[in-house]
Amino acid sequence: MQFAIKSCLDVVIWFSDRALNDREYIQPQKLHRLMFLAQAYYTVAYPGRKLMPATFVTDNFGPVEPTVFHAFAYGRPPHLEGNPVPDQAAHFLDSIWRRFGQYSADQLNKRLNEHPAVAAAMNKGPNEEVPFAEMVKFYQGEAAAKGAAPSADQVVRPRVMRSQSGKPVAVKGWNPKALTPKKPE
């Protein structure tokens, strides 16, 4: 599996810095929920790829990434600098921030805890892993069909570039559809 960003710490630092640029303090719970949403939507938007190497487990309030939870338990560690985030990944994270950054931690908790993958893991108790395949399955179609969450097309903003004449055009990466094998006759 390919990762767009080498470390989940880089995603945390990106969201933290973005919140500071918007003059907002990002609560740890909100940060974990945004990371969860980013991971799920990235795989839907870019099939076969993960945004970051991360595993989400449940706590009393919702999904958390345990490494980030431990590293940031007492706030952002001093002198921790992130690596540059690739442009495509930064554009994607910006889309997640614009779509979900307005919500409070409580609002995100409520939304995510209603999703089947999270609800099933939370019913089993704390420190239960949220299966990645179930996250993706929900966000690929079930979420939009039920109106429980926006589709990936509603979340990821198209990139705007300029044509040779200077006009702005929206561009999107090419995602070929998977071939279905033919049944033998």
Keywords:
single chain, 185 residues, mainly alpha, two-stranded parallel sheet, two-stranded antiparallel ribbon, 8 helices, Antitoxin SocA-like Panacea domain-containing protein
Beta-strand fraction estimate: 5-15%
| Uncertain segments | none
Terminal Cα separation, in Å?
A: 34 Å
Pattern of helices and strands: EHHEEEHHHHHHEE
Round the mean pLDDT to the nearest integer and report it. 83
Strand arrangement across the biggest beta sheet: 1-2
Organism: Magnetospirillum moscoviense
Region (Disordered): 147-185
Protein name: Antitoxin SocA-like Panacea domain-containing protein
Question: What this model shows, in words?
Answer:
With 185 residues, this protein is mainly α. It has one domain. The chain has helices at residues 8-21, 28-45, 66-71, 87-100, 105-113, 116-124, 132-146, 152-155; strands spanning 2-3, 49-50, 57-58, 63-64, 159-162, 168-171. The strands form 3 sheets. Strands 1-2 form a two-stranded parallel sheet. Strand 5 (159-162) and strand 6 (168-171) form a beta hairpin. The longest helix has 18 residues, at 28-45. It is globular.
